[in-house]
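Task: complex structure prediction.
Instruction: return structure tokens for all chains below.
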Amino acid sequence: MSQRNGILLVVSGPSGSGKTTLCRRLADEGEARYSVSCTTRPARPGEINGRDYHFLSREEFLAKRDAGEFLESAEVHGNLYGTLKTEVIGPLGNGTDIVMDLDVQGAAQVRACTDAEIRLAAVDLFVMPRNEEELLARLSGRGTDSEEVIALRMKNALGEMSHWPEYTYRLLSGDREEDFSRFKSLVIAERMRVCRLL
Amino acid sequence: MSQRNGILLVVSGPSGSGKTTLCRRLADEGEARYSVSCTTRPARPGEINGRDYHFLSREEFLAKRDAGEFLESAEVHGNLYGTLKTEVIGPLGNGTDIVMDLDVQGAAQVRACTDAEIRLAAVDLFVMPRNEEELLARLSGRGTDSEEVIALRMKNALGEMSHWPEYTYRLLSGDREEDFSRFKSLVIAERMRVCRLL
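Output:
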């Protein structure tokens, strides 16, 4: 009955699916650690280096990326973002469960990773609304956005949602408490997975 | 968001692990169907054909077994026991979750089954006490059995327990409510598994 290896839970889903809330709450309840990403964008007021992000210069980031140190990375609006393997591999080996909120490209990079520690730990979940009406309602938000803006969000969300069959698990989101309960069930089940107990 | 395929949850564990209680409660709460086995042993008073067992003659049983109709079967104390594939495949296709309480040989037969429906549906769990002290306490029961009887039970249980690494999940049993909660988490998680949603 040896020390358990940690779970690397990768969570994706369109904007409005509630995935970020699920991940944050899991971390807030002490059930998992939220991994801290690196970024080349400047820190915003109140953001703390090492807590919100590891802030790197573009040169530092690219050097680490070229050295294969990133588990996943992406460029968004001219800024680089990524998760260092060292950020997750050590804690996983100590039995710490880690949750990551990644887009479909990031999740695909984790899935393609060949490091034994990552392959053992990683499991992925796609969170999405039950139907298009619910998605539209969530994306319409406070009703202050133009129809064009909402239509673009809807198009992007539907594009992202087409990737759900690539994941191991899918959660259809609806009621907040019910969603979190099922999300936590997934973590509890994965903690019983024999391959991480050996 | 198509009709989900059912889960075939195979549960093993030594005598005293609490596995049967877990399976029965899952069925009692309407979360899964308890599969009905066939047997060649005579019905006991109160047992109903089709509810407790499908009672078959030895000839009937062997004919079905030779025709490959059993998902798993075994001979125990001169009586044949087994689960028909038809008992599970139809309900699974309709999205019914099924729970089976099988010994390690039975679970191995399910794992070796090549039918596509079974492979998609099957997942297995080994339930065992947290440590040998707890196992001994559970096997000692009401304290009316001889040391020899208890020692034999202990030997059998430890032999069965050595098979836990062959399973997908392992549940270390302790508190009854906590055990059932984790058992149910496993079912909830498996219902979100993408391969059964496609």
